[in-house]
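Pasting as-is:
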Amino acid sequence: MSAARAGLKRSPAPRRTEGSGDFVVVRLKGMRFWGHHGVGSAERSHAQPIDVDLEVHCDASRAARSDALTDAVDYHKLFEICGEIVAHRSFHLLEALARAIIDAVWRADCVREVTVRVRKPRLFDGATPEIEMRRQRPR
């Protein structure tokens, strides 16, 4: 049934402008990289798997209009950023690793919020430590 037949008035389509609220959430789940991270030197002496989930909230207004990757958040680049940080830097704490990932992703102008979860799946038998860190731009 149409809106008119249901007795509802149709509102004119809202005028969309840059930054007008077309948001997208880009998620990369279950990324696994190998890195040298941990408090003790023994833990950092050999590579261990580090699992990363990344969630990036972006203003997608420009990308939705242009259909161009240059106006969007490129999830291939997000994957590369995470892999580069995990594999080529060393941190004592998962919190510091998560912050480095957020700092790198945060540079894109369209990013409004980033959440990263970092896990060490082989640290304990039967338990996987995980931290979650989030950063949001003020509204």
